[in-house]
Amino acid sequence: MLRLSAELTAALAGADPAALADLAERWLALRAADAEDIDPELAEEMLTEVAALARPGTPVYCEVA
After folding, report:
1. Contact 50/27 with Cβ under 8 angstroms?
2. E-strand spans in 1-65?
3. In terms of C-beta distances under 8 Å and separation of at least 24 residues, what long-range contacts does 43-50 make, across chains too?
4. pLDDT of 3-59, one tens digit each?
5. To pair with 61 at 20 to 30 A between CA atoms, which of 10, 13, 32, 46?
C-alpha cells in the first residue's frame, strides 16, 4: 500500500486531461526504460481515475501488486 504525497495529490487534483495525457506518456517512457510494457490507453485511464479521487489535504492510498 502506497500513500501519495500531498504534493502529488494536489497536482493530480488540479490536472486537466491534457496534463494527465502528458503524464501518462512520461510514465510510459520511464517504465519502458525498465523493459516494462504498459498499454498507453490503460496508463491514461489509471491516472485519470486516481486523479478523480485526489482532493488536496486528503490522503490517497494506492495498492500495488
Report:
1. no
2. 2-3, 61-62
3. 44/20, 47/12, 47/20, 47/23, 48/17, 48/20, 50/4, 50/12
4. 999 999 999 999 999 999 999 999 999 999 999 999 999 999 999 999 999 998 999
5. 32
| H or E element at residue 30 | helix 17-33
Q: Can you spell out the DSSP letters for 11-23?
A: HHHT--HHHHHHH
Rounded distance between C-alpha atoms, residue 21 and residue 48, angstroms: 9
Nearest to 13 by CA among 47, 44, 65, 52: 52
The label of the residue with cell 494527465 reads 20
